[in-house]
Amino acid sequence: MLDYVILGTLALHPMSGYDLGKRMDGPGRFIGYRVGLPQIYRTLAKLTDRGLVAFDVDPRDGRPAAKVYRLTAPGQQALLEWAHSPYEPAPRPMDPDFMLRFLFAGILGHDIAIGILRTELEYRRAQRHDPMSIDELVADNDPIADIDPAWAAHIMHTAHEYGRSSMTAYIAWLEATLAEFENSHPAATSAS
């Protein structure tokens, strides 16, 4: 996935590996995907070897020169192919893969973003309508002597309720975002 995070970020703006790391630790931290600088540099080297990115050396006053990476034509093609490939939601709700796909594939087109939203929403609605009852899990418990069964059941119910309410809020966000995108004209969204 890091390949496409880097390709998508470079599609927006050329930058150094260090700047990629700062972006992921800064504003990018809210997409739920963290990666260290060594992994970014290894991935940039791999993408350079594959011809998907290229770099220019930027001399910097009083500091070491920086390699500023940019997307190549084959890199653009790889990003487009990934954006148009089928999106398969992860079983875990709110998995970072959705937000990464939504962000870095969705920027390539209105219809791509809508398709990703529809797929995620359909999957999460089906998942919500087929829940395992927490009571079934609690009834099967045979805890060790140090665990109070009533307290364990209370903790499990509370955690389950957190998950259900998070899923409900997530589905509401998906529905609202999809409705907004379906009711907006692609040219209007790209102009803002």
UniProtKB/TrEMBL annotation:
SUPFAM superfamilies: Winged helix' DNA-binding domain
UniProt domain Transcription regulator PadR N-terminal: residue ranges: 6-79
Gene3D superfamilies: Winged helix-like DNA-binding domain superfamily/Winged helix DNA-binding domain
Leader sequence segment: none
Protein name (database record): PadR family transcriptional regulator
UniProt source species: Nocardia arthritidis
